[in-house]
Inverse folding.
């Protein structure tokens, strides 16, 4: 009788532990995501969320917004979508701007870094990229990335987007 009670008690404890464990999120959202060259690899195979052709007066000179022949393609890694209007930490977006004459070939990226990296601008980090997805470097060899890339121009323009600094979705 005592062994039976112990057996059923053990099963009950195991069942409670199993149920409690299975209800927990196995992959909690990271608190910080620091991008590297591998982050942007093969970006042309990601979800193509938007293709915009021609001038865009709201862009001004950014992303060749004043070029009537430019095509801008916006890619989202893992087809990431906002949750309640906010993109989760680790969201990666790449924009490729190009024109047929080859005078425009610009690759830019934005990553939701988190951990109060850029707290005034929802923790987004901005990037200039090479065509292969590597983070571009300036003439001194420093990576072209950061909260205030282009003297804060990225922050200022994207702050008016309706969905967490993204104009595309």
């Amino acid at each position: 009788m005592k062994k039976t009670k112990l057996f059923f008690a053990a099963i009950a404890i195991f069942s409670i532990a199993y149920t409690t464990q299975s209800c927990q999120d196995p992959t909690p959202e990271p608190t910080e995501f620091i991008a590297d060259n591998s982050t942007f690899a093969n970006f042309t195979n990601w979800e193509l969320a938007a293709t915009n052709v021609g001038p865009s007066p709201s862009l001004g000179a950014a992303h060749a917004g004043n070029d009537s022949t430019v095509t801008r393609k916006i890619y989202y890694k893992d087809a990431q979508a906002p949750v309640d209007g906010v993109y989760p930490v680790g969201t990666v977006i790449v924009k490729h701007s190009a024109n047929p004459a080859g005078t425009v070939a610009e690759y830019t990226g934005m990553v939701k870094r988190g951990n109060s990296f850029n707290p005034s601008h929802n923790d987004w980090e901005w990037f200039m990229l090479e065509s292969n997805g590597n983070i571009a470097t300036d003439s001194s060899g420093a990576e072209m990335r950061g909260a205030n890339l282009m003297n804060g121009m990225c922050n200022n323009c994207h702050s008016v987007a309706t969905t967490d600094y993204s104009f595309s979705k």
Observations:
- Residues 53 and 105 are 14 Å apart (CA to CA).
- The helical segments are 2-22, 153-158.
- The two ends are 64 Å apart (CA to CA).
